[in-house]
Design a protein that fits this description.
alpha/beta, seven-stranded mixed sheet, two-stranded antiparallel ribbon, 15 strands, elongated
């Protein structure tokens, strides 16, 4: 074969490869669009119906024997504690010298004896309590959905408790779906901004970490869930663990309250207070996750698919099928491993959803392309033969 013929053949192969890869991209887009999830959704459980590849990375990373005990946050479990007991817990904790206290409890109504609780609030500097936020018609704007009865706009407006209030709502696609991120602030319909519960506690405990969070300017931050554990104390053990409480953010909340369990990448039923703990630790550690732009994710998928298709178009051998399958499986394995490596060691989220789907569709697109090409070629040949027969008859 001459050099000119080789060049033309090479250009033809590139053009064909590009066309087939584009077809694989279209097929993968049509496949993913109705579900709005990655191919990893096939491995999800019912409560993880919006499972993504990064959740898989979290699960694998969290199962390693390298988890550490966080030194920023301590959690106090108040399962079945009444208001008097909560007041006693606050008084003990305040004496232990914490940097900030987050009381993850919503007191819906006034009760007899609440004066003891109010006194505990007043004697507890650096106390943050939750507000529940609900989005308006515009999902970017919120209003206060519920709060403790002594919130300044509520029934007991005259109470001066020295409490800071912050939004404890957690962002998710819909109610009951996976919680992966923390919302740093909540713009309201009145034009004000309500700071989030974790951010308010970080501001009290570590102003530099809070300023770094603000400088990032992100409304949502991915929570670094994996490989971290927290000291969880019971009320009766507080005095003997005063050193554990001193100088840390203390979160007080129920661990086993059914109404406050949420699916996360590492646990299908994580208590809300622990999600706040992971959010605070992420900010104070500066362990932010960065995201690769979506157009780069798509380009990676396109390139990997191009490699498989180009091999199919140019390689001529009886072992073609086996070779292509080995290349396809190898690229799938490398894709998952590279994504895991960047996620764990560089805190970089690369969405390989398109890459995995396009690799799966690459050879299928080749079959469709070749089949359509053969059908068109046969139709053209029949049309040509028909014309020749008609001209011969004339």
């Amino acid at each position: 074969m001459s050099e000119g013929s080789k060049k033309k053949n090479y250009v033809r192969c590139l053009g064909k490869t590009l066309g087939i890869t584009a077809l694989a991209f279209i097929l993968s887009y049509l496949f993913m669009a109705p579900f709005s999830v990655s191919t990893a959704a096939f491995f999800s459980t019912p409560e993880k119906n919006d499972f993504t590849i990064t959740d898989f990375y979290n699960i694998v990373a969290d199962s390693r024997a390298v988890s550490h005990l966080d030194d920023h946050v301590v959690v106090i479990n108040i399962d079945n504690s009444d208001r008097q007991e909560i007041a006693d817990i606050l008084q003990i904790v305040s004496l232990c010298g914490p940097k900030a206290i987050g009381l993850d409890v919503m007191f819906d109504d006034r009760r007899d004896g609440d004066e003891v609780l109010h006194d505990a609030f007043r004697a507890c500097p650096g106390l943050v309590m939750p507000l529940s936020m609900r989005p308006e018609n515009d999902p970017m704007l919120f209003h206060i959905n519920s709060s403790s009865y002594f919130y300044p706009d509520g029934e007991a407006d005259t109470l001066k408790l020295g409490v800071e209030y912050a939004a404890a709502s957690m962002p998710s696609k819909y109610e009951g779906s996976m919680v992966r991120e923390m919302q740093t602030f909540f713009p309201t319909i009145s034009g004000d901004t309500v700071i989030s519960f974790p951010a308010a506690l970080v501001r009290l405990a570590d102003e530099e970490a809070y300023n770094r969070l603000r400088a990032r300017g992100n409304r949502l931050e991915y929570v670094n869930f994996h490989s971290r554990r927290f000291a969880i104390l019971e009320p009766e053990s507080l005095m003997e663990n005063a050193d554990t409480i001193s100088g840390r953010v203390v979160l007080i909340g129920a661990i086993h309250e059914l109404g406050d369990l949420h699916p996360t990448p590492v646990n299908s039923a994580m208590p809300g207070v622990l999600i706040h703990a992971h959010s605070i630790a992420t900010v104070m550690d500066g362990a932010y996750m960065e995201r690769l732009p979506q157009w780069m994710n798509v380009m990676i998928g396109f390139l990997l698919c191009f490699i498989v298709v180009f091999t199919h178009v140019t390689f001529r051998s009886g072992a073609l099928g086996l070779l292509l399958r080995l290349i396809q499986l190898g690229l799938l394995w490398v894709t998952v491993q590279v994504g895991y490596w960047f996620f764990i060691y560089h805190n970089l989220i690369i969405d390989f959803s398109y890459a995995l789907v396009m690799l799966a569709f690459g050879l299928f697109a080749c079959d469709i392309w070749n089949g359509v090409y053969t059908i068109i070629k046969n139709l053209i040949e029949k049309y040509r033969q028909k014309n020749e027969k008609s001209n011969t008859t004339i």
